[in-house]
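Progress against Task 2.4 (sequence-to-structure conversion) is shown through the following example record, which the project officer requested during the mid-term review.
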Amino acid sequence: MLKPRSGEASYVLKLPLLEGTSWRGEHGGQSRILKVDLAFDTGAGHHEGCVQTMEERLGDRPTRYSTIFCPEIGVVQVEVATGANFERATLKSYAPDAHARRRGGEAPPGAPDNPAQ
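Structure tokens generated for the chain above:
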């Protein structure tokens, strides 16, 4: 949960993770879950069980934010469209969670076998 200057709470992602769930987004618009259990490929590998959201902010500068979240990683892609402008950022690589590795968890594909301690 985020608290913008207005004092109203907003969320990046909100339960239940079901298509159609909606809430006040982090940019002040209306967010909703578009897809669940999405398979998505990035430079960091193939990801399953992902969730895609869309936030639409209206007004004098309407903007759309599409975000894909994947389990154990977080945000893997963000697209922002406003007027004639469009930007996309997609995950290319990531480091494994050192705490999970110490607890016996598996490293993600492409992670070094012996991470620095």
